[in-house]
Design brief:
The protein is mainly β. The chain has no helices and twelve strands. It has one domain. Strand 9 and strand 10 form a beta hairpin.
Length: 91
Amino acid sequence: MKSYKGKAVPYELTDEGVRIVNGPSVFNRPLYGTNAPGMLHAGDKPFLAFDLHYTGGKVGNALFAVLGRKSGKWLHDARQIEFTYIPGRCR
């Protein structure tokens, strides 16, 4: 983990954007649409929250999974999660 002025900084600046591996946060990156009344909240883990201002706030969440024939796994439970915030989008 990198440090700045003696403090641990879990995020790292790359050519692609701001990156973290196995970050603890959810809903810490707001993504605003063009000319839209709402936004998505993304974060270090693969959760999404939908926020529509005209409805009074958060209207739902999305969680993602990989399913097989006999089992499945939530993506937020993966051993390694790499999150990159690129201004205006996430990967």
